[in-house]
# Entry
Amino acid sequence: MSAGHAHDHAPASFDRAFGIGIALNIAFVAIEAFYGWKINSLALLADAGHNLSDVIGLVLAWGGALAGRLRPDARHTYGWKRASILAAFINALLLLVAMGSLAWEAVHRLQSPQPVEGVTIMAVAAIGIVVNTATALLFMRGRKSDLNIRGAFLHMAADALVSAGVVVAGGLALAFGWAWLDPVVSLLIAAVIVVGTWNLFKQSLHLLFDGVPEGVDLHAVRALLESLPGVARVSDLHVWAMGTSEIALTAHLVMPEGGGDDHFLAHATDELHEHFEIRHVTLQVTRAPLGNGCMPLPADTAHNAHGHGHGPDHVHAQARSVA
# Structure
């Protein structure tokens, strides 16, 4: 026998946020690069390069979000949801490479500091505070439910803080004539961004290799399934991210006394959704263990994290009796 139920809740669209954010940041990159070149400020030029990488990151994130909404077909039965994970990974990788280049140039500039125009730096950076804060606010509501959107939010929020730091550096350079402060601020910018980006890089790489998503403790999932009435054993338990906002699960439940009707399956999927935000569930129910299952999960491989995913509900449930 088989049974299933589904709830379709499409992820919130951030198309308008991406469009506005990209337009604002392209304009700011042009302003920042022009004045950085005009006054020979490495801090402004470096931040312009970083903001350009953010534009590329926003484009990638938008492309990943759009691809994730493509419907599944006979060739891609899950659709293109993983594109959002790939976009988050490339976004993080680009930032890390850009910050490495920035740090290298700043170290060389420290060896021969050059005077900069503090007033111009402060004025341009102040524009950056406004632009980056406005862009970050566009993604604020989706930052907790989607790794791809969280990446966009964190980059813009970090940029706003960095721009504030540049304003302070410009003021100090203007007041005290500290030419060395410009490359030092560049190094601080690089450090702040690397720290903020590293977690995004690790998470996206983890999900690319079907790692258990944050917020899902695999042992707790197993315990929940084993606590269901009639379940004697759980095997072939797999949890992975279909995209940055949707978690999938498959498992084999051994129920010697039979069971696995529609009510049982509905209750199981609702429990998984409520406790772990797992929305795409496939359960196989048999009376006896199957001989070709995966090895049970070792006791020391628990994956504990924080956070939840949100996305479309697609629940498939299968129950099969084995004599």
